[in-house]
Amino acid sequence: MLNKNVNNTLDSATKAQRIPVTNISTPTSSRKIHIREQKGQFQQLRTGMNSLLVALFFLLPFISFDGRQAILFDLSQQQFIFFGTTLWPQDFTILAWVFIAAAFLLFFVTVFWGRVWCGYLCPQTAWTFIYVWIETRIEGNRNKRYALDKAPWGSDKLKKRVLKHTAWGAIALLTGCGFIAYFVPARELYIDIFSFSASFWITAWVWFFAICTYLNAGWMREQMCLHCCPYARFQSAMFDANTKTVTYDAARGESRGPRKRNEASALGDCVDCNLCVDVCPTGIDIRNGLQYECINCGACVDACNQTMQKFAYQPNLISYTSENTLAGKAEPFYESYKFLAYGIAALIMISVIAVDIYNRNNIELNVLRDRQSLYRETLDDKVENSFTLKIRNKTQQTRLYRIYVSGNSAYRLMGEVDLKIHPGEQLDYPVTVVALPELLDSARNDITFTVAEQHNYSQASQESSFFAPI
After folding, report:
1. Distance (Å, whole) CA 68 – CA 240
2. Cβ neighbours for 374, distance < 8 A, ≥ 6 positions apart
3. Which residues span the membrane (predicted)?
4. Sheet of 418-421: strands edge to edge?
5. For residues 435 and 408, is the Cβ–Cβ distance under 8 A?
6. Close Cβ partners of 199 (under 8 Å, ≥ 6 residues apart)
7. Domains defined for the chain, CATH in brackets
8. Which of 133, 312, 389, 455 lies at a 20 to 30 A Cα distance from 297?
9. How far apart are the C-alpha atoms of 139 and 172, rounded to whole Å?
10. 140, burial (CB in 10 Å: exposed 0-12, middle 13-18, buried 19+)
11. Across the chain, how many H-helices and E-strands are there?
12. pTM metric for this prediction
């Protein structure tokens, strides 16, 4: 129940109502958490970053490069297209290194700023705040939403709930389309989905991710951060005394207590307004100390600074600060072994990615010997071996190639040696190599096939064996 006692803490003129501490939602409470909207510099930063990332999420699949979708995981063709560069399954070690490097960079940032990923960049946070914004526009502020939850069902409540869930569903469906647009051509996808002409599996995957979005952002919300996200559980292992996290300055704030503005008080600066709890997406009280549920979104910092400004107190009673800063210590962050460890690991991973990309070849060559016979003797006393060259053009342009053989001056390649291969095509090309037996060193001889791109330095080679009579 909302407390109807007069609250003179924030503005004695408006006599705003407040919720007592005992009834505030906490992560262990069964009561649904309704977030109070908050403005401030950190919320502007969070909103701006979330908006940018959501916009990029939806718009990137519509960017074209060289006449094709710039970013596309084409599962049917088993290729990943990234701005003209095509990665095949054998190239996916590059993606693995990218994810590993991203993880170490995340750990590296966490050493300094705690869970800023969760507060400012995490998709769960971004979509949750989108859903909360829609909910607030339709059902009203925090107190009105609590009152609506308790109100009996009627036409007004039904209308608001239907409108809210319809808007949530529309956002969820667009999100499902946005995600699948990275796997099938985006321009066709939206038309097919909304014209009900998409295939069964594409439709099923779109609706699967739409339902996941609706449940995660609309219903589970903080439960994902509290119980499902593994990052919340192991983040503390990366913290040290120099990590800047959202922290309450208890030495300055206690003992807390309500008061009127401009009223002399022997209490600490905390006026016990509970706004820091009302605006928290996970419903915690930051005044109880550092908690793993805190996602470092800075909402309580903005709320507390707003209150401090009204009471003409110093700002940053709650702020991004470190344990050493609060204790008056000034230890250089670069002396932390975690700083060095994560920094070096991230640099190593980035170097591995650079080397892997540098050594990546646009031609793939596999040489298969004829399984029917080791060799054949011709009527003119020569020996021939048959091979199949599997040549893949890993680019998005048609290329001209030439085949060479080396290993012995006696080898002669029969047939056409100049080839044209279309983008992404794998060509199975049979070739025959002949040689005079007397010019060979033994019954089994080394032979190397080379496929080189004409007018370019790209080439691929593979060794095999050439057999002859003993």
Report:
1. 47
2. 385, 467
3. 47-65, 94-114, 167-184, 190-215, 339-358
4. 418-421, 399-406, 444-453, 459-467
5. yes
6. 192
7. 1-360 (no CATH), 363-467 (2.60.40.10)
8. 312
9. 19
10. middle
11. 15, 16
12. 0.80
DSSP assignment of 179-243: HHTTTS-HHHHHHHHHTT-S-HHHHHHHHHHHHHHIIIIIIITHHIIIII-THHHHGGGG--TT-
Q: How much helix, strand and coil, in percent to the nearest 5, is found in the chain? A: 45, 20, 35
Residue 261's identity, in one-letter code, is R
- Beta strands of 273-398 (E only): which ranges? 318-321, 363-369, 376-377, 383-393
For the chain, the residue count is 470
In this structure, the strands spanning 85-87 and 318-321 are: unpaired
Within 10 angstroms of residue 104's Cβ, the number of other Cβ atoms is 19
Tell me the two tokens of residue 267: 């209490």
Tell me the pLDDT of the chain (470 aa) as tens digits: 333 333 333 343 333 333 333 333 344 445 789 999 999 999 999 999 999 999 999 999 999 988 889 999 988 878 888 887 888 887 888 888 999 999 999 988 888 888 889 999 999 999 999 999 999 999 999 999 999 999 999 999 999 999 999 999 999 999 999 999 999 999 999 999 999 999 999 999 999 999 999 999 999 998 998 888 888 778 777 888 888 899 999 999 999 999 988 888 889 999 999 999 999 999 999 999 888 889 999 999 999 999 999 999 999 999 999 888 888 886 666 667 888 888 899 999 999 999 988 888 888 899 999 888 889 998 888 999 999 999 999 888 889 999 999 988 889 999 889 999 998 888 999 999 999 988 888 899 999 999 998 877 788 999 999 999 87
How far is Cα 252 from Cα 239, in angstroms, rounded to an integer? 24
Contact present, 285 and 26 (Cβ < 8 Å): yes
Compute CA 302 distance to the chain's CA centroid, rounded to the nearest angstrom. 27
